[in-house]
C-alpha cells in the first residue's frame, strides 16, 4: 500500500512537471517572452562568475586496467554508517560465474563507517578497503579506478544497494551483445520508510544512439556496467560540483554500442541531504557551466567526435535547462546572464564544424533546439531563458 502511494505521488509529481513544460512550450511558440540581448561582455561575465566560483583545472591520468578479474565494483564511502551494511550485503551477496572484486574507498569517514568496512573486509576476500584522506566523491572514485583490475567497471554509492543477481545479468548483457556500456533501470528508495518505487519494466535492447542512451539512463556514474578501457584516459574532475557530467560528455561519446537493460538493476536512495542537492544549493552551482567547458575540451583531446549532431545537442541541453536549473538558486540576474554569455561564447567558438546540425526528437523539441542555438548565436538572453524552461 505504501509503495502504491509513493508511486502515485511520484506519478503526480512527474505529471505536474510535464504540464509545466507544456505551458512553457506554448509561451515559446507564441513568442510571449521578452526578447533581450545580453549586454555584459564575456570578460566581465567571467569575472562576475570567478568571484563566486572560479574555473579550476581538470586533470586526467593515463590508466591501464590489468584485466585480472571480470568486474571491479568501486564504492566511495564517506560517513555512510547508516546505510553501508545494506549496501555491502547487496554487493557481497552477488553470485558471479567469473571473479570480481569490490573496492571500497574510505574517503576520510569520521563516523562508524571505518569499523563496518573492517568487519566486511575480514569476512569477504573479494573486498578491499583503501583508506584515503577526504578528497570528495570524485577523488574517491578516481582512487578506485587507479586500483581496479577488472575488464568491466561498476560504480556503487554507499547509500544505495543492488538487487540480487544483477552483476551477472549486466555482465551477460555486455558479453553477449558486445556493448561497451550496459545501462540498467533504477528504482528510487524513499529513505523515510525504505519504500522502493519500482521502475516500469521495458524490453531490453541494443542502442547506438548517444541521445537515446542519454534519455534512458540517469546522468550518474552508478547503475551502469562499463568496459574498463573507456576510463583509460578519463577520470572524474576533482574539485568540481556535478562531476558526474563527464559520464555523458566524455565516456558516452567513446561508446560505439550501448545495451539498455529493461529490468531493475540499481536502487538509489532519495534523501534531502543528497550530494546533488547540496551542490545545487551552493556556489558549486556555477560548475554546471565550467564542467561542460572542461569536459568538451577533454573530449577533443581523447579523440571523441564532438561535432556529431547528438553530441552538440547534448551540449545545448546541458548549457540550457541543466545549467539554468542549477543557477536559479542564486536569484541573481547578473550571475545567470553572465553564465549565458560565457556559454554563448563557448558554443559559437567551439561548434563550428558543420553548417547545420540535425537535431533529434519530435518536431516541437527540434524547434526548441533550433531556437536555443539561435539564442546563443544572437546572444538573446530572453529566448535562452524561455528555451531552458521549455526543455
UniProtKB/TrEMBL annotation:
Residues 72-214 form the Glycosyltransferase 2-like domain. Pfam families: Glycos_transf_2. It comes from the Bacteria. GO terms for molecular function: hexosyltransferase activity. Transmembrane segments: none annotated. This is Glycosyltransferase family 2 protein.
Amino acid at each position: 500500500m505504501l509503495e502504491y502511494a509513493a508511486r502515485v505521488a511520484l506519478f503526480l509529481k512527474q505529471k505536474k512537471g510535464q504540464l509545466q513544460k507544456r505551458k512553457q512550450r506554448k509561451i515559446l511558440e507564441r513568442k510571449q517572452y521578452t526578447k533581450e540581448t545580453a549586454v555584459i561582455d564575456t570578460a566581465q561575465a567571467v569575472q562576475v562568475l570567478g568571484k563566486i566560483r572560479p574555473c579550476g583545472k581538470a586533470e586526467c591520468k593515463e590508466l591501464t586496467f590489468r584485466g585480472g578479474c571480470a568486474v571491479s565494483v568501486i564504492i566511495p564511502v564517506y560517513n555512510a554508517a547508516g546505510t553501508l551494511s545494506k549496501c555491502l550485503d547487496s554487493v557481497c551477496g552477488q553470485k558471479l560465474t567469473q571473479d570480481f572484486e569490490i573496492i571500497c574507498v574510505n574517503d576520510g569517514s569520521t563516523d562508524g563507517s571505518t569499523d563496518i568496512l573492517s568487519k566486511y573486509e575480514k569476512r569477504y576476500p573479494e573486498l578491499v578497503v583503501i583508506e584515503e584522506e577526504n578528497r570528495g566523491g570524485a577523488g574517491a572514485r578516481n582512487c578506485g579506478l587507479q586500483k581496479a583490475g577488472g575488464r568491466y567497471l561498476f560504480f556503487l554509492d554507499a547509500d544505495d544497494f543492488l538487487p540480487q543477481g544483477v552483476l551477472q545479468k549486466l555482465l551477460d548483457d555486455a558479453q553477449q551483445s558486445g556493448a561497451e556500456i550496459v545501462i540498467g533501470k533504477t528504482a528510487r528508495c524513499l529513505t523515510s520508510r525504505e519504500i522502493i518505487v519500482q521502475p516500469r519494466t521495458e524490453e531490453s535492447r541494443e542502442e547506438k544512439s548517444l541521445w537515446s542512451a542519454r534519455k534512458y539512463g540517469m546522468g550518474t556514474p552508478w547503475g551502469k556496467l562499463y568496459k574498463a578501457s573507456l576510463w583509460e584516459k578519463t577520470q572524474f574532475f576533482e574539485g568540481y560540483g556535478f562531476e558526474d557530467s563527464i559520464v555523458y560528455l566524455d565516456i558516452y561519446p567513446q561508446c560505439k554500442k550501448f545495451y539498455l537493460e529493461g529490468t531493475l538493476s540499481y536502487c538509489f536512495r532519495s534523501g534531502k541531504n543528497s550530494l546533488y542537492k547540496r551542490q545545487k544549493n551552493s556556489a558549486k552551482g556555477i560548475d554546471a557551466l565550467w564542467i561542460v567547458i572542461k569536459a568538451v575540451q577533454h573530449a577533443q583531446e581523447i579523440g571523441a567526435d564532438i561535432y556529431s549532431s547528438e553530441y552538440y545537442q547534448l551540449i545545448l541541453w546541458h548549457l540550457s535547462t541543466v545549467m539554468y536549473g542549477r543557477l536559479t538558486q542564486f536569484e541573481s540576474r547578473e550571475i545567470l546572464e553572465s553564465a549565458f554569455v560565457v556559454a554563448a561564447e563557448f558554443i559559437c567558438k567551439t561548434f563550428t564544424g558543420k553548417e547545420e546540425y540535425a537535431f533529434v526528437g519530435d518536431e516541437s523539441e527540434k524547434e526548441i533546439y533550433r531556437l536555443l542555438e539561435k539564442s546563443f548565436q544572437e546572444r538573446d538572453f530572453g529566448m535562452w531563458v524561455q528555451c531552458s524552461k521549455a526543455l
